[in-house]
Amino acid sequence: MVNPTQTAAWQDLVSYAQADQRPRLRDLFEASPERADQLTVAVGDLTVDFSKQLVTAEIISSLLALAENVGVGDQIAALLAGAPLNTTEARPALHTALRAPRHETIMVNNRDVVADVHAMRDRMVAFAHEVRNGQRTGATGRPFTQVINLGIGGSDLGPAMAYEALAGYRQPGLRCCFVSNVDAADLDDALSGADPETTLFIVSSKSFSTSETLTNAETARRWLTRHLGEQATSRHMVAISANSERTREFGIEPDNRFDVWDWVGGRYSLDSAIGLSLMLALGPDGFGEFLDGFRLVDEHFAQTPLSENVPVLMGLISLWNRSFLDFPTRAVLPYSHALRRFPAYLQQLEMESNGKQVRADGDPVDYPTAPVIWGEPGTNGQHSFHQLLHQGTTTVPCDFIAFARATPTPTLDQLGDPGVHQELLVANCFAQAEALAFGRTAAEVAQDGAEPELVNHRTFPGNRPSTVIMARQLTPSTLGQLIALYEHQVVVQAMVWGINPFDQWGVELGKQLATGIVDELRRDQPTGSQHDSSTNKLIAHFRSER
Ligand code: F6P
Predict the structure, then answer these.
(1) 34 is catalytic
(2) Given this model, what pLDDT does residue 418 score?
(3) Smallest CA separation from ligand 1 atom 2, residue
(4) What is the pLDDT of residue 410?
(5) Tens digit of pLDDT for each residue in 399-418?
(6) Can 383 be counted among the known catalytic residues?
(7) Could you give phi then psi for residue 474, rounded to 5 degrees?
(8) How far apart are CA 259 and CA 240, in angstroms?
(9) What pLDDT score does 149 carry?
(10) Residue of 86, 207, 349 to test ligand 1 pocket, by largest number of atoms within 8 Å of CB
(11) CA 257 / ligand 1 centre spacing (Å)
(12) Tell me: the pLDDT tens digits for 365-392?
């Protein structure tokens, strides 16, 4: 495989990134009044403004040459066709098949996976109707009013994020909550006030071996049986898993299991049955609109030349910031309360995918890979960490996300125009991007009448890059589009770096060590720990404090 650093384009980019060559946003905007027009692109309902990124036409063409040199176009085609790009696990990564139309065919091991996806979707739809119309009830015959999803990582973050994001599109009568942490307080919160007779648990675990989820599921089952008797599990618990054997051993019958396939990675699985809680909340039609949004971006990703391909451009610019300009983190700042869980969702998507130190062939990389992703919704962040974004010693590229129209707010809508909030919200978003890009020079500060001893304190260096993503309104479709955009830009970066974004070996060691340590914490008598002195002492301390 091609080592990207061996390409001429990589070397050009290294030279463009030298301190004395780096673009200055003030100069770029002054030199080209059309800059915003030239660097604003659209995909579906999303408008993406890259003009405040530290890029020039030469840098973009070198990034595109780099993508060509490492065969990004062919890699995209291979990904979408189901080639086994997850090489360490010898599997395809076919999350795009989850939103493929019924008539499409994608063969994996002589099986049409699109047909499997739609057969499973039909079962989900039937289940959602039965739960919603009261045909499927709890053990005492009462309809369900509460759904508790038990899952973690990709089996939690996606549905939990989208459930909050699409609050304005939920159908009434059914509330969902999401329990992920093995800390008993998480499940306790969900169960306090819940009525066992009307509560449905969805145990979401692709592997059905994740200790946090299984521990929560066992406790939930005890809660159910204590109130409703042994027979309650079959009425009140369903599973979403690829592991039929373990689900059955747990006591969930095949009819109550919804399949996920090994070709869907956990962090890419929201459109599979892992999204069942979301389908229950939105109804099958709303869920269908959500999938259509993904599909729109998938088609663009598949069919558009690299130079106009929005996820490709976004991935390449992110890679420029990380591997060449050496910015270690990236902030995702949705100016939307509904998207408050979006940064957490993206943390798994991007960092579990691209937090890798070896290339797919096992050779170590000699360039930085994934940045640390973090963020909070605006304007809240402005009153906490934006100080550092503007005047700190680290440059943090930012993704701003904003909507022209507010999400439905039923109570406020009765008071009149909620625009008063939306305008202030979005004005702040635009102002932050402007302030980061252009700052304020000492001369300007002095000219504004600042006291001389405060001039340096009130100076903003500017030249801090950001992208602004806008849509008219956050809807099921635009959320699907936004997620697909991020999914694809993650994968594009991996393609250039030559890493496998679909495995996650880095989570294994901690899991393995925890299995041993939990035994030591639970034992009646200490047995002489075999860890380092720090871990031994912590174990002893825990035991003495119990
Ligand atoms: O430990 C990491 C991980 O495997 C994630 O990749 C995954 O999303 C999460 O755990 C949950 O896994 P499962 O759905 O198998 O319980």
Answers:
(1) no
(2) 66
(3) 507
(4) 78
(5) 999 999 998 887 887 887 66
(6) yes
(7) -80, 110
(8) 6
(9) 98
(10) 207
(11) 18
(12) 999 999 999 999 999 999 999 999 999 9
* Ligand 1 centroid to residue 350 C-alpha, Å: 14
- pLDDT value at residue 526: 76
Place of tokens 């976004």: 314
Per-residue pLDDT at 415: 82
- Could you say which of 245, 383, 451, 508 is catalytic? 383
Q: Which residue numbers in the chain have pLDDT < 50? A: none
- Name the catalytic one among 197, 289, 352, 520: 352
Give me the pLDDT at residue 527, please.
Answer: 73
CA distance 214 to 193: 22
Take residue 74 and report the two structure tokens written for it: 């062919």
CA angle 156–91–262, rounded 5-degree value? 35
Question: CA 343 to CA 380: how far, in whole Å?
Answer: 14
Residue pair 145/175 in contact (Cβ under 8 Å)? The answer is yes
> What's the pLDDT at 528?
75
Q: Which residue owns the Cα nearest ligand 1 atom 8? A: 154
What separation in angstroms does the CA of 502 have from each of 27, 59, 62, 262, 356?
40, 28, 27, 11, 11
Rounded Cα distance between 348 and 320, Å, is: 21
Half-sphere exposure for 423 (CA within 13 Å, toward CB): 4
Pocket (CB within 6 angstroms of ligand 1): 152-155, 205-207, 210, 213, 266-267, 352, 504, 507
Residues 6+ apart with CB under 8 A from 525: none
Residue indicated by tokens 């493929």: 100
What is d(CA 147, CA 169) in angstroms, rounded to the nearest whole number?
17
Q: Is 511 a catalytic residue?
A: yes
237 contacts 252 by C-beta, under 8 angstroms? yes
Q: Distance between CA 450 and CA 107 in Å, rounded?
A: 68
Q: Report whether 465 contacts 324 (CB < 8 A).
A: no
Q: What is the pLDDT of residue 501?
A: 98
Alpha-carbon distance of 412 to 422, in angstroms, equals: 12
Q: For residues 302 and 106, is the Cβ–Cβ distance under 8 A?
A: no
